[in-house]
Write a structure and sequence with these properties.
Structural class of chain A: alpha+beta
Oligomer: homodimer
CATH class of the domain at 404-696 in chain A: Mainly Beta
Shape of chain A: elongated
Strand content of chain A: 15-25%
């Protein structure tokens, strides 16, 4: 086991001569192991500082970052600092001040190294001594909301953030301090600080969760900076405790830990990352966890290169960089999977580290340089230097995001996220595991983007991060009562109850399964998945297809959802289109005043504004968003109901966004088949006032065959073109030939699906 | 009178030697009068063509426009054209095809002249002959909605558009045609076409209205192209009719004509334009009318320079260019005054003409070049050449939009629009006349923009121009029942009835009046106006101030509305903030399901979502829009009511946008004083998740003095700064010293208002 090897490995001074590795695509930076007393060594290295100083003034993106960092830090130095007694939640003064302090200390430490100007070291030193003076006197933070309250902040999570940054600052000014000074800081501040977030809060530290990742990294970083093997062991293996309670949960309702579960840094790499580098909590939290994962890995690699942390689990940390970037839309914003705030993107500072570390330690992939160039910023360290040099030398290539399936689960066998990219369309189809405490009950849900604009939305989370006015910037109660519920997503809801009864315990035991993911043919990309546990006794099979056809301006989406149950149920399939309704082809009865749609499971937050009992013809909804025209066409069966709804009921504090949905409802049926298309077909200009192709291309879609084995859908355009898509509902991997007769025509094919223009 | 002079002026050939006028700021292009048989002469001139040909390839913006025009026309020529039998409303095939035809003909004519390639002339000729063949056989357009149905289109307005463009095409290929061919076109097509929109539709042609402007320009352009003096007289003076009905109205409810009103082109310049160049219908329609005004003026100037059309009414047509550009926000989008669709901007093609003509005929103002540069397009004629050369020579200067008051009314004495610009804030305050049939009942309303984003919105119109799905792209019934009503605006509504009883007849008789407009001090800009007719017996006086103070990040707005009535009333003051509510400082009772707010005058379209009886303290509404934090603070009096409402009731076709409002309501009072501030004070980044200055700077605002003569408001910041603003409610032009005592302090000043930091 690697950890034992590490402990055995007690040689203090080892010089491994630098081996230049120049493999084009996947070289690993082999770092020289240092004397442990040589500083800086965590993120900046002595050699790195030397190289940076040699290149300054000739590496534009680095120089620019350096200048803006200097400006920020100089302004702070001239203002002076404050170390207030902790009091507030996020958004409040003491919270924001301590947060600013660690950010500025880290930057000042770096400036001290690069610019060799003692004023920066002094600033860090003075602030650290102020912390060292006050920290021992502070009680547990007065705000009670967290399951693991910090001392500087209301939760240990933020205390860990502080230590991750401050460790770097300490490493940078290490040699500026006297041994006596170091001893004071380590004894009065760093060790008790590390103990508090680990020993004193095992419910926080001993987890597999992004909280613990921060905690592990924090303790690990300060351990490496102080050469403290005991703390390093704790970071890697967790803290030993006797009284472990397997039923304990955190504030988000997530379990603290499963019995017997491994803990510590590597456990946090092992479990949440799939072999593809997908992080089970989703990209919003991967972005957040990415920094401690990679910054600690970088430090660990720099100081203990023989441990080859970046090769761990088939280089999963490096793969995660690629996975994370692939989980963004055309604007670089993360897809909304599980708890996630809209607008978060690869322009976030933690992604600058992610990209730079990924480049420097992951074989200098030139595509990463194009992302770094857009970020227009690099880290002020060895990795950032490598990126700056790469850009300067014009090595960058476009980062091309293709259709991709990213498996979920430690072994990659717990479902996946399927992303279909075709033209300007990005379809995100979710058939993953639950995603720990940040998971939503939204198996087989999807979202659709065009040019980076959400067209069919995932609501995201009910939280305004760091906006104190909204519940202290923390999760709002509507996150539980609305955002996590199934009806808040574009997926099936049975009998107005959320999947897995809306229970984390149940949801966490299951995952959906990939049925097909085939994107070989750019014009016909298919993602298909099955969910058999969300509603016991009911099997759901959804197939999403993007079809590129010359008769359509843009690729369109075909969506087939097959539901089979052994009991009669009501099925609701919501469709959260964004934009303004232009037209429907069905008459609806608009209520004089809206009614609340239901009592629980999120339904209590939806207003019913209008409804219609449809007659078995296709229904069409035509809308305008962002000066583009879209149409949703759906096959209906007699007595299906279409409900036009709006989010916002039972929302006393205006926490929710009052956005629309169309719900297709089938009552009292065992089996159900939902088939629909989504087209982006036209444009509008408010400047020329010209509407182009404002109507759907499609005349009719029809289910022409439906059995246990096969489902066939025919799509007729207004121009008279007819095409057919057939999916084999069972046994996707069947080797032989499929053959069925539909309307006296025989269709034969090999593979799990068939598509052809038939007229 | 100028028109008589014109008719006397019968000399056919006059050569006035070109006089080069090189006055820096206000030169007028003196054009050589041409032989009337020399073509082209309307927009392109023979000399212009020569100059263009000489410069081609060396004038980038012109070359670019030429290349893209050529691409469009070549594509059309290779596709071939269609002249379908008229059938559809706008958005439909025949409408859009005829529209495309005139646009392409005009371009092809220009290309023929510039590129000297006969294929373009042939294309125009063939299409014109097809029209000449069919036009005489067409009945009146089958769609019945217009008060003046066209033949090619559903309304004479669009037929006039056709003729304005086609006259230019005809002028360009005039010399390509044989005399016989010209005779055929003129006899079978142009003369009957001109007769139909004038003689046969005097209710359309004999008006003062943008419709008539198009009609007059159309007949005038073809008259100039054909040298037809009788038609030119008709364009300038209207058509003689005997059976004039003064009670007749158009589809928008506007009167056709007042008895005894002058008609024809110059009457349309005289009446709607104020001496400042403000067009009474508002900028959206000015943009639309601008093209026929200026294109006809250009042709008239080119052919009859001795008439000095651009000098008419103290150069009002040239002033209108400047006025129109000043009526745009930071993004170049027109302010929403009266009927107006959001998003229309100076990037509209008609503004390219407007800017180029304004530059060429208005003294080569270098600021216009910077607008032309942003438009990245010029007209392919003499004016466009002048602009292209100006840009090439680097003459452009920034077009700086300052605070400005633009008077309304033919004589500039019917109120005004006051625009206060301070920092990134633009405040549009409306105290105009009614604005003809496109007017809204919104005296003393305002809107607020920051960086071109609407913060406090004017709803605009209920229409989706050219989007057939929405009522054929025409005005929707909600435009009358909602958009025009007072409650749809940020202004006072008495007893839930619109101003002027919501009646056009009454509204058209009155206008508000400027009381103060003083923007000399950039840090303290004041616009104040009075309205005494909207509700008989009630006087309304609103004062809007922008204040720049170092304690605030951005300038803030102080709004004081004084209402005095001789009867007890209910007063509602709505506040249409855009964005998401973060927090209010008052408790409100959110209804389980929304209720409809009222029965008529637009109230039937508002849902009441929540309400609060406030206690006389300041109320505060803090919201987030476009990642900026705003706060509205308002003085309240005991038992005032705050209503949170949403647009969308009684909207069976989802024609309305479901946006929010806060209504401050005072019941059963004769006099009322509404005082509030609007601050833009903070920012949020979803990428860094940092909220900066998310709360209001203001601790309290208080009315510290209020009499018939003076109102004083004190504003205290959270940092303890106190300032006072005093307005003299009567006699703004008083020369002597004002003096009042407030809380034992004596304030003395000269002028209609006073502002000072007092502590």
């Amino acid at each position: 086991m690697r950890i034992k090897n590490l402990l055995v490995f007690k040689v203090v001074i080892i010089i491994i001569f630098l081996v230049a590795v120049s493999c084009e695509n996947k070289s690993e930076v082999v770092t020289e192991a240092k004397t442990t007393s040589e500083h800086p060594k965590l993120i900046l290295t002595k050699q790195g500082v030397k190289d940076i100083r040699a290149n300054i003034g000739q590496i534009p993106i680095f120089d620019k970052t350096l200048a803006s960092t200097k400006k920020v830090v100089d302004a702070e130095i001239s203002k002076g600092f404050d170390v207030p007694v902790p009091k507030d939640y996020s958004g409040g003064y003491t919270h924001e001040t301590h947060k600013k302090n660690y950010v500025v200390m880290q930057k000042a430490g770096v400036l001290y190294q690069i610019l060799d100007d003692a004023k920066y070291a002094k600033y860090v030193k003075d602030m650290l001594f102020e912390y060292a003076k006050q920290y021992p006197t502070w009680p547990i933070h007065p705000k009670p909301r967290s399951y693991a309250r910090g001392k500087v902040f209301w939760q240990c999570l933020n205390d860990s953030n502080w230590l991750v940054y401050t460790s770097q600052a300490y490493d940078c000014i290490y040699n500026y301090l006297s041994e006596e000074e170091r001893k004071t800081l380590e004894t009065d501040l760093f060790k008790p600080f590390a103990d508090y977030i680990s020993k004193d809060n095992p419910q926080f530290f001993n987890r597999v969760h992004n909280h613990a990742t921060w905690g592990n990294a924090a303790v690990g970083m300060i351990a490496l900076a102080m050469d403290d093997d005991e703390l390093l062991d704790r970071a890697l293996n967790g803290v030993k405790v006797d009284n472990f309670n397997p039923d304990e949960k955190d504030n988000d309702g997530g379990y603290i830990r499963k019995d017997g579960q491994k803990i510590g840094f590597f456990a946090n790499v092992d479990e949440p990352f799939s072999p593809d580098g997908y992080f089970t909590e989703g990209p919003y939290y991967q972005r957040y966890a990415s920094y401690p994962f990679l910054i600690f890995a970088q430090a660990y690699q720099n100081i203990k290169p023989e441990q080859k942390v970046f090769s761990y689990k088939d280089s999963v940390l490096l793969k995660s960089v690629n996975a994370l970037l692939n989980l963004t839309n055309a604007k670089g914003e993360f897809f909304l999977l599980n708890d996630a705030q809209k607008g978060m993107s690869y322009f976030n500072a933690s992604l600058v580290s992610t990209v730079d570390i990924g480049y420097h330690f992951g074989g200098n992939n030139p595509e990463l340089l194009s992302i770094a160039k857009m970020q227009n910023e690099v880290t002020l360290d060895d990795a950032g230097l490598a990126v700056a040099l790469g850009i300067k030398e014009g090595k960058e290539k476009p980062f091309v995001k293709k259709s991709i399936e990213l498996s979920d689960g430690a072994n990659g066998d717990e479902g996946a996220v399927g992303i279909l990219r075709s033209g300007n369309i990005e379809l995100v189809f979710k058939y993953t595991a639950h995603g720990l405490s940040h998971g939503h009950f939204d198996k087989l849900s999807f979202a659709l983007f065009e040019d980076g604009t959400e067209v069919i939305q995932d609501y995201g989370m009910s939280r305004f991060v760091n906006i104190e006015q909204k519940g202290g910037g923390n999760y709002l109660k509507e996150n539980t009562t609305w955002s996590k519920q199934s009806i808040a997503h574009n997926t099936l809801v049975q009998n107005e109850k959320s999947q897995f009864k809306g229970k984390y315990d149940i949801g966490s035991k299951h995952h959906s399964n990939t049925y097909i993911f085939n994107v070989e043919n750019e014009n016909l990309q298919v993602a298909s998945a099955k969910e058999e546990n969300a509603y016991p006794g009911t099997k759901i099979h959804r197939t999403m297809v993007t079809i590129k056809d010359e008769d359509y301006v843009n690729p369109y989406v075909l969506d087939i959802m097959q539901v089979n149950s052994n009991s009669s149920n009501q099925y609701d399939l919501p469709f959260y289109f964004k934009g303004h309704i232009m037209q429907t082809n069905f008459d609806y009865n608009k209520l004089i005043t809206p009614e609340i749609l239901g009592n629980s499971d999120g339904y209590q937050h939806l207003y019913k504004e209008a409804s219609s009992v449809v007659n078995g013809e296709n229904i069409k909804l035509n809308w305008l968003l962002n000066n583009k025209f879209y149409t949703y066409s759906a096959v209906t069966f007699n007595k299906d109901e279409a409900i036009l709804g709006r989010i916002g009921a039972n929302d006393p504090d205006y926490n929710l966004r009052n956005e629309q949905t169309l719900i297709l409802r089938k009552k009292n049926v065992k089996d159900a088949l939902f088939v629909s298309t989504i087209e982006s077909h036209g444009t509008y200009s408010p400047v020329s006032e010209l509407a182009v192709n404002s109507y759907s291309n499609i005349d009719q879609i029809a289910v022409v065959y439906n059995s246990k084995e096969y489902t066939a859908v025919q799509i007729n355009t207004k121009k008279g073109k007819q095409s057919i898509f057939i999916i084999s509902n069972e046994n996707a991997s069947k080797k032989g030939k499929h053959s069925i007769e539909i309307n006296k025509n025989t269709y034969q094919w090999i593979g799990p699906y068939y598509y052809s223009v038939i007229n």
